[in-house]
Design goal:
Blueprint: E1 5-11, E2 18-24, E3 27-31, E4 33-37, H1 48-53, E5 59-61, H2 63-68, H3 72-77, H4 81-85, E6 91-93, H5 97-103, E7 114-115, H6 124-128, E8 134-136, E9 141-144, E10 151-154, H7 156-166, E11 170-172, H8 184-209, E12 217-222, H9 228-239, E13 245-248, E14 252-253, H10 257-265, E15 274-276, H11 282-290, E16 295-298, H12 300-306, E17 309-312, E18 315-318, H13 338-342, H14 345-353, H15 358-384, H16 387-398
Helix pairs in contact: 7-8, 8-9, 9-10, 10-11, 12-15, 14-15, 15-16
Length: 400
Protein backbone atom coordinates (compact mmCIF):
# COMPACT_ATOMS: atom_id res chain seq x y z
CA UNK A 1 0.00 0.00 0.00
CA UNK A 2 1.34 3.46 -0.94
CA UNK A 3 1.62 5.48 2.23
CA UNK A 4 1.82 9.00 3.61
CA UNK A 5 4.75 10.72 5.33
CA UNK A 6 5.98 14.12 6.44
CA UNK A 7 9.64 15.12 6.66
CA UNK A 8 10.94 18.37 8.13
CA UNK A 9 13.91 19.56 6.08
CA UNK A 10 14.83 22.76 7.91
CA UNK A 11 13.55 25.21 10.50
CA UNK A 12 14.13 28.93 10.87
CA UNK A 13 16.29 29.82 13.86
CA UNK A 14 14.31 31.09 16.86
CA UNK A 15 11.03 30.47 15.05
CA UNK A 16 8.41 27.79 14.42
CA UNK A 17 8.59 28.45 10.65
CA UNK A 18 9.75 25.30 8.88
CA UNK A 19 10.27 23.72 5.49
CA UNK A 20 9.23 20.16 4.80
CA UNK A 21 7.86 17.58 2.40
CA UNK A 22 4.49 15.83 2.56
CA UNK A 23 4.59 12.58 0.56
CA UNK A 24 1.29 11.14 -0.71
CA UNK A 25 0.31 8.37 -3.14
CA UNK A 26 -0.13 11.06 -5.83
CA UNK A 27 3.11 12.94 -5.28
CA UNK A 28 4.88 15.30 -2.93
CA UNK A 29 3.97 18.70 -1.51
CA UNK A 30 6.85 21.00 -0.63
CA UNK A 31 5.83 22.96 2.45
CA UNK A 32 4.88 25.61 3.37
CA UNK A 33 2.36 25.45 0.52
CA UNK A 34 -0.85 27.11 -0.56
CA UNK A 35 -3.48 24.53 -1.52
CA UNK A 36 -5.80 25.62 -4.35
CA UNK A 37 -9.52 25.14 -3.67
CA UNK A 38 -11.53 23.16 -6.21
CA UNK A 39 -14.87 23.00 -4.38
CA UNK A 40 -16.98 20.91 -6.79
CA UNK A 41 -14.07 18.93 -8.29
CA UNK A 42 -13.09 21.97 -10.32
CA UNK A 43 -11.08 25.11 -9.71
CA UNK A 44 -13.60 27.64 -10.97
CA UNK A 45 -12.93 28.94 -14.51
CA UNK A 46 -9.69 26.95 -14.90
CA UNK A 47 -8.66 23.66 -16.49
CA UNK A 48 -6.46 21.28 -14.47
CA UNK A 49 -3.58 22.13 -16.80
CA UNK A 50 -4.01 25.82 -16.01
CA UNK A 51 -4.05 25.04 -12.29
CA UNK A 52 -0.83 23.10 -12.69
CA UNK A 53 0.57 25.98 -14.75
CA UNK A 54 0.26 28.46 -11.87
CA UNK A 55 2.44 26.17 -9.77
CA UNK A 56 -0.27 24.60 -7.62
CA UNK A 57 0.98 21.49 -5.87
CA UNK A 58 -2.36 20.20 -4.60
CA UNK A 59 -6.10 20.84 -4.75
CA UNK A 60 -8.75 20.72 -2.02
CA UNK A 61 -12.31 19.64 -2.89
CA UNK A 62 -15.48 19.93 -0.82
CA UNK A 63 -17.08 16.85 0.72
CA UNK A 64 -20.48 18.43 1.34
CA UNK A 65 -20.94 19.71 -2.21
CA UNK A 66 -19.70 16.51 -3.88
CA UNK A 67 -21.91 14.39 -1.63
CA UNK A 68 -24.98 16.33 -2.80
CA UNK A 69 -23.88 16.54 -6.44
CA UNK A 70 -22.97 14.31 -8.24
CA UNK A 71 -22.76 11.98 -5.22
CA UNK A 72 -19.75 10.07 -3.94
CA UNK A 73 -20.92 6.87 -5.66
CA UNK A 74 -20.63 8.54 -9.07
CA UNK A 75 -17.14 9.83 -8.28
CA UNK A 76 -16.04 6.42 -7.03
CA UNK A 77 -17.40 4.72 -10.14
CA UNK A 78 -15.44 7.22 -12.25
CA UNK A 79 -12.24 6.06 -10.54
CA UNK A 80 -12.08 8.64 -7.75
CA UNK A 81 -11.62 12.39 -7.73
CA UNK A 82 -8.26 12.33 -9.47
CA UNK A 83 -9.59 10.62 -12.56
CA UNK A 84 -12.98 12.33 -12.38
CA UNK A 85 -11.51 15.85 -12.54
CA UNK A 86 -8.28 14.97 -14.37
CA UNK A 87 -5.96 16.14 -11.59
CA UNK A 88 -2.75 14.15 -11.27
CA UNK A 89 -1.28 15.61 -8.06
CA UNK A 90 -2.09 15.35 -4.35
CA UNK A 91 -5.62 16.13 -3.26
CA UNK A 92 -7.39 17.08 -0.03
CA UNK A 93 -11.07 16.90 0.88
CA UNK A 94 -12.57 18.72 3.87
CA UNK A 95 -15.04 17.03 6.20
CA UNK A 96 -18.21 19.05 5.57
CA UNK A 97 -18.00 20.60 9.05
CA UNK A 98 -17.73 24.17 7.80
CA UNK A 99 -20.85 23.73 5.63
CA UNK A 100 -22.67 22.59 8.75
CA UNK A 101 -21.70 25.91 10.33
CA UNK A 102 -22.81 27.81 7.21
CA UNK A 103 -26.21 26.11 7.16
CA UNK A 104 -26.66 26.19 10.93
CA UNK A 105 -25.45 28.92 13.25
CA UNK A 106 -24.30 31.21 10.44
CA UNK A 107 -27.30 30.79 8.16
CA UNK A 108 -28.83 34.09 7.14
CA UNK A 109 -26.61 36.16 9.45
CA UNK A 110 -23.68 37.09 7.25
CA UNK A 111 -21.29 35.55 9.78
CA UNK A 112 -17.99 34.01 8.67
CA UNK A 113 -15.42 32.10 10.71
CA UNK A 114 -13.53 35.35 11.37
CA UNK A 115 -15.15 37.98 13.57
CA UNK A 116 -14.63 41.51 12.27
CA UNK A 117 -17.15 43.29 14.46
CA UNK A 118 -19.51 44.10 11.57
CA UNK A 119 -21.59 40.92 11.63
CA UNK A 120 -25.01 40.40 13.04
CA UNK A 121 -26.17 44.02 13.08
CA UNK A 122 -29.73 43.09 12.14
CA UNK A 123 -32.25 43.08 14.97
CA UNK A 124 -32.71 40.05 17.23
CA UNK A 125 -36.15 39.41 15.72
CA UNK A 126 -34.75 39.49 12.19
CA UNK A 127 -32.00 37.07 13.12
CA UNK A 128 -34.35 34.74 14.93
CA UNK A 129 -36.67 34.67 11.93
CA UNK A 130 -33.95 33.06 9.83
CA UNK A 131 -34.79 29.36 9.84
CA UNK A 132 -31.64 27.31 10.26
CA UNK A 133 -31.12 24.63 7.65
CA UNK A 134 -29.02 22.38 9.93
CA UNK A 135 -29.60 20.78 13.34
CA UNK A 136 -26.59 19.55 15.31
CA UNK A 137 -26.77 16.74 17.88
CA UNK A 138 -24.15 14.44 19.37
CA UNK A 139 -25.06 11.85 16.75
CA UNK A 140 -24.34 14.14 13.81
CA UNK A 141 -25.98 16.84 11.72
CA UNK A 142 -29.38 16.81 10.05
CA UNK A 143 -29.56 19.30 7.22
CA UNK A 144 -31.53 20.19 4.13
CA UNK A 145 -29.86 20.37 0.74
CA UNK A 146 -29.32 23.87 -0.62
CA UNK A 147 -29.96 22.36 -4.06
CA UNK A 148 -33.36 20.68 -3.76
CA UNK A 149 -34.36 20.89 -0.09
CA UNK A 150 -33.97 17.15 0.50
CA UNK A 151 -33.19 16.01 4.04
CA UNK A 152 -29.83 14.43 4.91
CA UNK A 153 -27.88 13.20 7.93
CA UNK A 154 -24.12 13.68 8.12
CA UNK A 155 -22.22 11.95 10.92
CA UNK A 156 -18.51 11.23 11.45
CA UNK A 157 -18.84 7.75 9.99
CA UNK A 158 -20.73 9.05 6.96
CA UNK A 159 -18.17 11.80 6.37
CA UNK A 160 -15.39 9.18 6.39
CA UNK A 161 -17.31 6.92 4.01
CA UNK A 162 -17.90 9.80 1.58
CA UNK A 163 -14.28 10.96 1.70
CA UNK A 164 -12.95 7.44 1.20
CA UNK A 165 -15.22 7.02 -1.80
CA UNK A 166 -13.97 10.34 -3.21
CA UNK A 167 -10.42 9.06 -2.84
CA UNK A 168 -8.44 12.15 -1.80
CA UNK A 169 -4.93 11.67 -0.39
CA UNK A 170 -5.58 13.77 2.72
CA UNK A 171 -8.97 13.93 4.42
CA UNK A 172 -10.29 15.61 7.58
CA UNK A 173 -12.17 14.32 10.60
CA UNK A 174 -15.75 15.54 10.97
CA UNK A 175 -15.90 18.53 13.30
CA UNK A 176 -18.18 21.33 14.44
CA UNK A 177 -17.13 24.82 13.40
CA UNK A 178 -18.61 27.34 15.83
CA UNK A 179 -19.50 30.98 15.33
CA UNK A 180 -16.92 33.52 16.52
CA UNK A 181 -19.82 35.05 18.49
CA UNK A 182 -20.76 31.80 20.29
CA UNK A 183 -20.63 32.00 24.07
CA UNK A 184 -18.01 30.02 25.94
CA UNK A 185 -20.62 27.61 27.29
CA UNK A 186 -21.49 26.52 23.78
CA UNK A 187 -17.83 26.44 22.68
CA UNK A 188 -17.20 23.91 25.45
CA UNK A 189 -20.11 21.73 24.32
CA UNK A 190 -19.07 21.92 20.68
CA UNK A 191 -15.45 21.11 21.55
CA UNK A 192 -16.38 17.97 23.45
CA UNK A 193 -18.59 16.96 20.53
CA UNK A 194 -15.75 17.60 18.05
CA UNK A 195 -13.40 15.42 20.11
CA UNK A 196 -15.95 12.59 20.25
CA UNK A 197 -16.52 12.93 16.52
CA UNK A 198 -12.75 12.81 16.01
CA UNK A 199 -12.58 9.43 17.79
CA UNK A 200 -15.47 8.09 15.71
CA UNK A 201 -13.90 9.45 12.51
CA UNK A 202 -10.61 7.74 13.34
CA UNK A 203 -12.22 4.37 14.04
CA UNK A 204 -14.21 4.43 10.79
CA UNK A 205 -11.22 5.69 8.80
CA UNK A 206 -8.94 2.94 10.07
CA UNK A 207 -11.53 0.33 9.20
CA UNK A 208 -11.97 1.69 5.68
CA UNK A 209 -8.23 2.13 5.06
CA UNK A 210 -7.62 -1.61 5.41
CA UNK A 211 -9.82 -2.20 2.35
CA UNK A 212 -7.96 0.18 0.01
CA UNK A 213 -4.91 -0.06 -2.23
CA UNK A 214 -3.84 3.53 -1.56
CA UNK A 215 -3.48 4.94 1.93
CA UNK A 216 -5.52 8.01 2.81
CA UNK A 217 -4.15 10.27 5.54
CA UNK A 218 -6.59 11.57 8.15
CA UNK A 219 -6.15 14.94 9.87
CA UNK A 220 -7.88 15.77 13.14
CA UNK A 221 -9.36 19.27 13.37
CA UNK A 222 -8.48 21.49 16.33
CA UNK A 223 -11.29 23.73 17.55
CA UNK A 224 -11.89 25.90 20.63
CA UNK A 225 -12.82 29.29 19.22
CA UNK A 226 -11.00 32.29 20.70
CA UNK A 227 -10.28 30.65 24.05
CA UNK A 228 -6.66 29.76 24.79
CA UNK A 229 -7.42 26.99 27.26
CA UNK A 230 -9.95 25.37 24.93
CA UNK A 231 -7.55 25.53 21.97
CA UNK A 232 -4.81 24.00 24.11
CA UNK A 233 -7.18 21.29 25.37
CA UNK A 234 -8.16 20.48 21.79
CA UNK A 235 -4.54 20.34 20.60
CA UNK A 236 -3.60 18.08 23.52
CA UNK A 237 -6.59 15.77 23.08
CA UNK A 238 -6.24 15.37 19.32
CA UNK A 239 -2.44 15.30 19.48
CA UNK A 240 -2.68 12.11 21.55
CA UNK A 241 -4.79 10.40 18.87
CA UNK A 242 -3.38 8.50 15.89
CA UNK A 243 -3.95 11.19 13.27
CA UNK A 244 -1.55 11.66 10.36
CA UNK A 245 -1.71 15.45 10.66
CA UNK A 246 -3.89 18.23 11.97
CA UNK A 247 -6.18 20.92 10.66
CA UNK A 248 -6.73 24.11 12.62
CA UNK A 249 -10.27 25.26 12.10
CA UNK A 250 -13.09 27.14 13.71
CA UNK A 251 -13.60 30.77 14.53
CA UNK A 252 -11.13 33.55 15.20
CA UNK A 253 -11.07 37.28 15.67
CA UNK A 254 -9.32 39.02 12.81
CA UNK A 255 -6.40 40.29 14.88
CA UNK A 256 -5.56 37.12 16.81
CA UNK A 257 -5.36 34.38 14.16
CA UNK A 258 -1.58 34.01 14.48
CA UNK A 259 -1.79 34.05 18.29
CA UNK A 260 -4.44 31.33 18.34
CA UNK A 261 -2.46 29.25 15.85
CA UNK A 262 0.62 29.60 18.04
CA UNK A 263 -1.24 28.23 21.06
CA UNK A 264 -1.99 25.11 19.05
CA UNK A 265 1.33 24.52 17.30
CA UNK A 266 3.15 24.75 20.64
CA UNK A 267 1.33 21.55 21.65
CA UNK A 268 0.68 19.51 18.49
CA UNK A 269 3.25 16.82 17.59
CA UNK A 270 6.19 18.49 15.85
CA UNK A 271 6.65 15.63 13.37
CA UNK A 272 3.18 15.88 11.84
CA UNK A 273 1.90 18.49 9.34
CA UNK A 274 -0.50 21.30 10.28
CA UNK A 275 -3.07 22.79 7.90
CA UNK A 276 -4.85 26.12 8.49
CA UNK A 277 -8.34 25.71 7.10
CA UNK A 278 -9.89 28.45 4.98
CA UNK A 279 -7.29 31.17 5.58
CA UNK A 280 -5.49 32.94 2.76
CA UNK A 281 -5.15 36.65 3.50
CA UNK A 282 -1.56 37.71 2.77
CA UNK A 283 -0.70 38.58 6.37
CA UNK A 284 -2.25 35.29 7.55
CA UNK A 285 0.12 33.39 5.26
CA UNK A 286 3.19 35.04 6.75
CA UNK A 287 2.04 34.86 10.35
CA UNK A 288 0.59 31.37 10.02
CA UNK A 289 3.88 30.05 8.63
CA UNK A 290 5.77 31.87 11.36
CA UNK A 291 3.52 30.14 13.90
CA UNK A 292 4.30 26.72 12.44
CA UNK A 293 1.66 26.14 9.74
CA UNK A 294 2.65 23.91 6.81
CA UNK A 295 -0.31 24.24 4.41
CA UNK A 296 -3.27 26.59 3.82
CA UNK A 297 -6.38 26.60 1.67
CA UNK A 298 -8.65 29.49 0.76
CA UNK A 299 -11.22 30.32 -1.95
CA UNK A 300 -10.28 34.02 -2.01
CA UNK A 301 -7.90 34.06 -5.02
CA UNK A 302 -10.51 32.77 -7.46
CA UNK A 303 -13.51 34.35 -5.72
CA UNK A 304 -12.16 37.90 -5.87
CA UNK A 305 -10.97 37.25 -9.44
CA UNK A 306 -14.56 36.60 -10.49
CA UNK A 307 -15.41 39.98 -9.00
CA UNK A 308 -12.71 41.75 -11.01
CA UNK A 309 -10.11 42.06 -8.24
CA UNK A 310 -6.46 41.05 -8.40
CA UNK A 311 -3.54 40.77 -6.01
CA UNK A 312 -0.51 42.95 -6.64
CA UNK A 313 2.62 43.55 -4.60
CA UNK A 314 1.08 46.91 -3.66
CA UNK A 315 -2.17 45.32 -2.44
CA UNK A 316 -5.51 44.36 -3.95
CA UNK A 317 -6.70 46.24 -7.03
CA UNK A 318 -10.16 46.36 -8.62
CA UNK A 319 -9.66 46.31 -12.37
CA UNK A 320 -13.23 47.47 -13.01
CA UNK A 321 -12.08 50.98 -12.09
CA UNK A 322 -12.19 53.34 -15.11
CA UNK A 323 -8.55 54.38 -14.67
CA UNK A 324 -7.46 50.98 -16.03
CA UNK A 325 -9.31 51.35 -19.35
CA UNK A 326 -6.20 52.59 -21.14
CA UNK A 327 -3.43 51.01 -19.10
CA UNK A 328 -1.58 49.07 -21.79
CA UNK A 329 0.80 47.23 -19.50
CA UNK A 330 0.39 43.99 -17.52
CA UNK A 331 -1.09 43.95 -14.03
CA UNK A 332 2.49 43.54 -12.80
CA UNK A 333 5.25 43.85 -15.42
CA UNK A 334 7.61 41.50 -13.56
CA UNK A 335 4.98 38.79 -12.97
CA UNK A 336 5.66 35.55 -14.87
CA UNK A 337 2.08 34.27 -14.92
CA UNK A 338 0.35 33.50 -18.23
CA UNK A 339 -1.98 36.49 -17.83
CA UNK A 340 0.74 39.09 -17.24
CA UNK A 341 2.93 37.62 -19.97
CA UNK A 342 0.21 37.94 -22.61
CA UNK A 343 -2.45 40.54 -21.73
CA UNK A 344 -2.63 44.19 -20.75
CA UNK A 345 -4.56 45.62 -17.85
CA UNK A 346 -6.69 47.53 -20.35
CA UNK A 347 -7.75 44.28 -22.01
CA UNK A 348 -8.64 42.72 -18.66
CA UNK A 349 -10.66 45.83 -17.75
CA UNK A 350 -12.50 45.48 -21.07
CA UNK A 351 -13.33 41.80 -20.38
CA UNK A 352 -14.72 42.69 -16.95
CA UNK A 353 -16.89 45.50 -18.30
CA UNK A 354 -18.11 43.30 -21.17
CA UNK A 355 -18.90 40.55 -18.64
CA UNK A 356 -16.84 38.07 -20.63
CA UNK A 357 -16.14 34.70 -18.96
CA UNK A 358 -12.49 34.95 -19.97
CA UNK A 359 -11.98 37.65 -17.34
CA UNK A 360 -12.57 35.11 -14.55
CA UNK A 361 -10.07 32.74 -16.11
CA UNK A 362 -7.29 35.26 -16.66
CA UNK A 363 -7.69 36.98 -13.30
CA UNK A 364 -7.87 33.63 -11.48
CA UNK A 365 -4.64 32.54 -13.16
CA UNK A 366 -2.90 35.67 -11.95
CA UNK A 367 -4.27 35.51 -8.40
CA UNK A 368 -3.45 31.84 -7.90
CA UNK A 369 0.02 32.39 -9.33
CA UNK A 370 0.52 35.35 -6.98
CA UNK A 371 -0.49 33.51 -3.80
CA UNK A 372 1.14 30.20 -4.73
CA UNK A 373 4.46 31.82 -5.56
CA UNK A 374 4.30 34.12 -2.54
CA UNK A 375 4.25 31.04 -0.33
CA UNK A 376 7.02 29.53 -2.45
CA UNK A 377 9.06 32.69 -1.83
CA UNK A 378 8.33 32.48 1.89
CA UNK A 379 9.56 28.88 1.83
CA UNK A 380 12.78 29.98 0.11
CA UNK A 381 13.26 32.78 2.64
CA UNK A 382 13.07 30.26 5.50
CA UNK A 383 15.72 28.11 3.83
CA UNK A 384 17.89 31.18 3.24
CA UNK A 385 17.40 32.44 6.79
CA UNK A 386 16.01 35.84 5.76
CA UNK A 387 12.30 35.22 6.44
CA UNK A 388 11.88 38.14 8.85
CA UNK A 389 13.42 40.62 6.40
CA UNK A 390 11.32 39.30 3.53
CA UNK A 391 8.14 39.48 5.64
CA UNK A 392 8.84 43.03 6.77
CA UNK A 393 9.62 44.33 3.29
CA UNK A 394 6.73 42.57 1.56
CA UNK A 395 4.03 43.57 4.07
CA UNK A 396 5.26 47.16 4.22
CA UNK A 397 4.58 47.57 0.49
CA UNK A 398 1.47 45.37 0.31
CA UNK A 399 -0.38 47.17 3.12
CA UNK A 400 0.87 50.67 2.49
Amino acid sequence: MKTFSFTIKSQLANSKARVGTISTPHGEIQTPAFITVGTAATVKALTPEQVEGVGAQAVLANTYHLYLRPGEAVVKKAGGLHKFMHWQGPMFTDSGGFQVFSLGEAFGKGISKVATGDEGKSSVNERMSQAKKAKITDDGVTFYSHIDGSKHMLAPEKSMQIQHALGADIIFAFDECTSPHAKREYQEIALERTHNWAKRSLVEHQKLNTKQEKYQALYGVVQGGQYKDLRELSATTLGNMAFDGFGIGGSFTKDDIATAVGWVTDILPKDKPRHLLGMGEVIDLFEGIEAGIDTFDCVSPTRIARNGTVYTKAGRVSLSNAKYAQMFIPIEPDCQCYTCQNFTTAYLHHLIKAQEMLSATLLSIHNLYFVTHLVDDIRASIEDGNFKEFKSQFLKVYYK
